[in-house]
Design a protein that fits this description.
There is one protein chain. 22% of the residues lie in helices and 27% in strands. The N and C termini lie far apart (66 Å). By secondary structure, the protein is of the alpha+beta class. The strands form 2 sheets. Strands 1, 2, 3, 4, 5, 6 and 7 form a 7-stranded mixed β-sheet that branches. Strands 8-9 form a two-stranded antiparallel sheet.
Length: 240
């Protein structure tokens, strides 16, 4: 009978939270990046985040970091835990496990850098130099983007990018920006109006400078999008 190997003693492991904060500005999907103010990766762009403090839950840390970087109350926004990253070599300071959170927020003003960053700014996702990002943040950003794109197919989170009340055109713009291709306005309108408890009419209208007033809506109680709005059904609309 072989001996049961003894459990190795736990070594010092730190836990952090990193935030992938997406918004739509100037008709482009943008992510909040900070310039690191200390080593490692001094001066390199990175996702905002920080260490989990004594007595904090992971959600507490995510909410605190979001408030420090954007001034927003994450309890009123779409904030979800994305994935845990724990490769041994991801941080040159030692073994650091990070829990990534995804936040989807309406258009915001210029952010304020946190205590360990020189600067913070919104950067268009398609212009981020992945090779320059600190740690494994390029991997985290890529996976967060793919997750956000898939979530728009099956859930109602697209409305998290909109300031209520919003028009169907505002909502369609979210899908087009995040997915990266144009959608037929009439077909899109039919699908989102037909989705169960996705949109609630406010009875109000926005009067444009040109054209007809647009009906305004607020987000309904549904979290899942039924029927789903699949990207594969709209590939023919890819932008060139």
């Amino acid at each position: 009978m072989s001996e049961v190997p003894q459990a190795s003693h736990a070594t010092g492991v730190a836990v952090t939270v990193d935030l992938v904060i997406f918004t739509i500005r100037a008709n482009r999907l943008q992510v909040l990046l900070v310039e690191r103010g200390k080593e490692p990766f001094l001066g390199r762009p990175a996702l905002p985040g920080g260490y989990v403090r004594d007595g904090e839950t992971l959600n507490d840390t995510a909410l605190r970091e979001l408030s420090e970087e954007t001034g927003l109350d994450g309890r009123r926004l779409h904030l979800e835990q994305l994935k845990t990253y724990g490769d041994p070599g991801r941080d040159p300071r030692g073994r650091v496990i990070t829990v990534a959170y995804l936040a989807l927020v309406p258009n915001l003003s210029a952010p304020v850098a946190g205590t360990d960053a020189r600067a913070a700014s919104w950067i268009p996702v398609d212009s981020v130099d992945s090779g320059e990002l600190a740690f494994d943040h390029a991997v985290i950003l890529h996976e967060a983007l793919e997750w956000a794109r898939s979530q728009l197919e099956y859930t109602t989170v697209a409305a998290a990018f909109c300031v209520e009340p919003f028009s169907i055109s505002d909502l369609r713009q979210v899908y087009e920006v995040v997915w990266g291709f144009s959608l037929d306005p009439s077909n899109f309108r039919r699908k989102v109006i037909g989705a169960e408890d996705f949109l609630i009419p406010t009875g109000k209208r926005r009067v444009p400078e040109i054209g007809r007033p647009a009906a305004l809506y607020q987000r309904g109680a549904a979290q899942l999008l039924f029927p789903p709005l699949m990207r594969s059904a709209n590939i023919s609309q890819v932008r060139t």
